[in-house]
């Protein structure tokens, strides 16, 4: 069953087109990875889908409901979409546990005890329980990103958006995060993941969307896209990406 | 009259000095916050107004503004009581300085964290209250300590409008005992003790609520 | 308004003399305070612990007490020691002691922001302590402290208005004397404020120029 569909999604910044008519479907339980050259509009796509940036035109359906028409409850939509940022965006003045509980208490209106219990449960899931009382500045990069993932997951979102979750991490820490995301993949968490990391793409995706110049150039399972694709642009891109590892 | 007696007379005025300081700090905090928040508005007229506000109240000498309020406004039919005059004056002047401090601190807050809060479903007001404001305050602490102690050091101007605080008591003491050196040395000591106490208390509070990676030095 | 303008013209010599006194005092104490600040700053780097603690005590006391106290100490206190001095001299001494302490602190803050390695390198290269201070530490600390020091200069100008409380015939006091003849206090104070704002604007513009002139690539506060 489709969770998110977008039809002919266009986004312009001051008349400059960044997304030029994207059609995409994300089914429940599916994991899609979005890849493409820098500046091709990957982050913009994610931000449009949860309305952090309003789309210029086109339709986005969330569970069949058009969320681009006026009067849509944007905050309810965003609660159903967990967002993980490249640079973690952990709240620096709160401990790991408080980072998780803040949303539960203030957005989901949970009592503080219930929020704490839920946070503890989620933190255990990714091995962050022992770090729960640390502040972001006291964590390694991998731990920060795991905390950020927990923060998003704790809200019980219908889908998780990840924008380059490993690209500000060194390989060791990146592995730590990939294994967490892989676990989510095995748990059938629905995900949309932007990445430059071919390794991550291969191990967590049902399919890979290749974006170039604000348009979908191809969509396929990782293997078929990565090796010997007929389109020279795609071949060129993945030669670069995969050689780098 | 021994030096101790002088100190005792002055210390009796310390309560009023402290009361004045606290009232001025509260006013300055309110003005500073309001200006800093308004300056987030992208509306050009508001921006220009605030630039003007900051320039005027950072540029005018405190004593001149105090006289303008206390001795000048009655000429326009507006009588402002002494205490309120000083609170108004220092509230505006220190408020203008605090606004700059708050503005700088707000810029030091990572925008992505506020965005993350909104991406999770918080309203703008919630993102502001739970993410931006607490961090801004932490970054502002050194500047706030500076400004608060500056207020304390401006309070002796209160004697010019007849408030019986430390300086006023000292001035009424000098002609009686004719020992200005001792009296004003004693005044200095009393102020210094209050100053030190303030700094110690503020620093202790700062340390108590310090968060790794978020103190102003690490910013 | 007409009354004020009329009086301003009538009393122009007195008011201008007051303005002159204000500028004179501000210039003197900004200069002596600047030099004093450097001297005090150098003393905080002294080898002798006693010297350092005395210097730090001095800075702490003058930053921790009101300017008005320093002025009163000089004006009412010094004569008791047999030193009869004019209001200008009393103000100059009081201000200098006050400003030197603040400037020294600005320089100390800048010094803490300096690159330690560079100082080590200078010592390793065989410079003596005074040479290191004069050739490396001071120029760099001064450059980093320029915004704080120019802020202090505007502060000094504004603070000279306090000198009227020790009978120095500066601008503010002279305008008040004129106002006392016609009871136009509000306008007189407004006029005073505007003149101060204009002077402050001049200093700010000059400070910006200075900052741009001495800016070095890759070296900013
Ligand atoms: N708020 C904005 N205003 C104007 N232009 C923007 C804005 N956000 C993004 N852009 C432009 O849109 C284009 C796509 O940006 P986007 O961040 O989506 O790229 P990306 O694919 O995520 O790149 P990267 O891999 O470097 O993260 C870029 O050219 C960028 O300059
Ligand atoms: Mg991006």
Topology diagram in text:
The complex is a heterotrimer of chains A (245), B (219) and C (221).
Chain A: E1 2-13, E2 16-27, E3 31-35, H1 42-49, E4 57-62, E5 65-66, H2 74-79, E6 81-84, H3 96-106, H4 112-125, H5 141-153, E7 159-163, H6 171-186, E8 191-194, H7 198-204, E9 207-212, E10 215-220, H8 222-226, H9 232-244
Helix pairs in contact in A: 3-4, 3-5, 4-5, 5-6
Chain B: H1 3-38, H2 44-59, H3 62-72, H4 82-108, H5 111-119, H6 124-154, H7 166-177, H8 180-208
Helix pairs in contact in B: 1-4, 1-6, 1-7, 1-8, 2-4, 3-4, 4-6, 5-6, 6-8, 7-8
Chain C: H1 2-10, H2 12-44, H3 49-64, H4 67-77, H5 87-112, H6 116-124, H7 129-159, H8 171-182, H9 185-214
Helix pairs in contact in C: 2-3, 2-5, 2-7, 2-8, 3-5, 4-5, 5-7, 6-7, 7-9, 8-9
Structure description:
Chain A has 245 residues and is of the alpha/beta class. Chain A folds into two domains: 2-80 and 158-244, Rossmann fold (3-Layer(aba) Sandwich); 91-156, no CATH class. Chain A is built from nine helices and ten strands. Chain A has a six-stranded mixed sheet with strand order 6-7-8-3-9-10, sandwiched between helices. The longest helix of chain A is centred in the last third of the chain and has 16 residues, at 171-186. With 219 residues, chain B is mostly helical. Chain B has helices spanning 3-38, 44-59, 62-72, 82-108, 111-119, 124-154, 166-177, 180-208. The radius of gyration of chain B is 21 Å and the shape is flat. By secondary structure, chain C is mostly helical. Chain C has one domain (2-214): MetI-like (MetI-like fold). Chains in contact: A-B, B-C. Residues 42-43, 163 of chain A line the site of magnesium ion.
In sequence order, what are the helices and strands of chain A, one letter per element? Answer: EEEHEEHEHHHEHEHEEHH
- Proportion of residues in helical segments of chain A: 25-40%
Placed side by side, the strands forming the largest sheet of chain A appear as 6-7-8-3-9-10
Biggest sheet of chain B, open or closed, and with what strands and sense? Answer: none
SSE order of chain B, one letter for each helix or strand: HHHHHHHH
CATH class categorisation of the largest domain in chain A = Alpha Beta
From the 3D structure, determine the CATH topology of chain B.
MetI-like fold
Number of strands of chain B: 0
Largest sheet of chain A: 6 strands, mixed
Would you tell me the overall average pLDDT of chain B?
A: 91
Fourth-level CATH superfamily of the largest domain in chain A = P-loop containing nucleotide triphosphate hydrolases
């Amino acid at each position: 069953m489709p969770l998110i569909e977008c039809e002919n999604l266009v986004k312009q910044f001051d008349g400059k087109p960044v997304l030029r008519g994207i059609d995409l479907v994300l089914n429940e339980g599916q994991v899609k990875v979005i890849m493409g050259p820098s500046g091709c509009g990957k982050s913009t796509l994610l931000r449009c889908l949860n309305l952090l940036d309003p789309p210029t035109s086109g339709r986005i359906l969330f569970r069949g409901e058009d969320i681009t028409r006026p009067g849509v409850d944007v905050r309810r939509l965003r609660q159903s979409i967990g967002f993980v940022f490249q640079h973690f965006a952990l709240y620096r003045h709160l401990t790991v546990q408080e980072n998780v509980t803040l949303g539960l208490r203030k957005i989901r209106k949970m009592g503080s005890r219930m929020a704490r219990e839920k946070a503890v449960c989620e933190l255990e899931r990714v091995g962050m329980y022992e770090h729960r009382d640390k502040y972001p500045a006291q964590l390694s990069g991998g731990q920060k990103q795991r905390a950020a993932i927990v923060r998003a997951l704790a809200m019980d979102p219908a889908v998780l958006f990840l924008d380059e979750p490993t690209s500000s991490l060194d390989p060791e820490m990146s592995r730590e995060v990939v294994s967490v995301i892989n676990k989510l993949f095995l748990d059938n968490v629905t995900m949309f993941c932007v990445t430059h990391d071919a390794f991550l793409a291969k191990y967590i995706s049902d399919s890979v969307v290749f974006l170039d110049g604000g348009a979908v150039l191809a969509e396929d399972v990782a293997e078929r896209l990565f090796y010997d694709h007929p389109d020279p642009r795609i071949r060129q891109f993945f030669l670069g990406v995969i050689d780098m590892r | 009259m021994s030096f101790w007696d002088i100190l005792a007379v002055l210390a009796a005025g310390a309560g009023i000095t402290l009361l004045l300081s606290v009232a001025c700090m509260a006013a300055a905090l309110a003005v500073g916050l309001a200006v800093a928040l308004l300056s987030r508005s992208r509306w050009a007229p508001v921006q220009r107004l605030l630039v003007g506000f900051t320039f005027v109240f950072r540029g005018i000498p405190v004593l001149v503004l105090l006289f303008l309020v206390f001795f000048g406004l009655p000429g326009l039919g507006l009588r402002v009581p002494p205490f309120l005059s000083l609170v108004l004056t220092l509230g505006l002047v220190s408020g203008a300085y605090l606004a700059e401090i708050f503005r700088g601190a707000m810029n030091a807050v990572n925008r992505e964290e506020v965005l993350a809060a909104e991406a999770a479903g918080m309203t703008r007001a919630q993102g502001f209250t739970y993410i931006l404001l607490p961090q801004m305050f932490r970054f502002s602490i050194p500047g706030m300590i500076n400004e608060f102690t500056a207020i304390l050091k401006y309070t002796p101007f209160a004697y010019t409008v007849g408030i019986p605080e430390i300086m006023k008591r000292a001035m009424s003491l000098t002609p009686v005992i004719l020992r200005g050196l001792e009296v004003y040395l004693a005044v200095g000591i009393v102020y210094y003790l209050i100053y030190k106490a303030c700094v110690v208390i503020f620093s202790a509070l700062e340390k108590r609520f310090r968060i790794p990676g978020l103190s102003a030095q690490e910013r | 308004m007409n009354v004020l303008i009329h009086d301003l013209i009538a009393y122009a010599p007195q008011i201008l003399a007051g303005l002159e006194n204000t500028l004179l005092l501000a210039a003197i104490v900004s200069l002596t305070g600047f030099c004093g600040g450097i001297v005090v700053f150098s003393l905080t780097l002294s080898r002798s612990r006693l010297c350092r603690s005395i210097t730090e005590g001095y800075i702490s006391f003058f930053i921790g007490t009101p300017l008005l106290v320093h002025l009163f100490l000089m004006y009412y206190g010094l004569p008791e020691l047999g030193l009869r001095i004019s209001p200008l001299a009393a103000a100059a001494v009081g201000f200098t002691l006050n400003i030197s302490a603040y400037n020294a602190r600005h320089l100390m803050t800048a010094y803490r922001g300096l690159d330690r390695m560079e100082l080590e390198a200078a010592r390793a290269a065989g410079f003596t302590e005074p040479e290191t201070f004069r050739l490396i530490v001071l120029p760099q600390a001064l450059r980093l402290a320029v915004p704080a020091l120019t802020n202090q200069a505007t502060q000094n100008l504004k603070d000279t208005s306090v000198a009227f409380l020790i009978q120095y015939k500066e601008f503010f006091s002279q305008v008040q004397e004129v106002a006392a003849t016609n009871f136009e206090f509000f306008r007189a104070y407004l006029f005073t404020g505007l003149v101060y704002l204009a002077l402050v604007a001049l200093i700010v513009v000059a400070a910006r120029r200075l900052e741009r002139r001495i800016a070095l690539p890759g070296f900013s506060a």
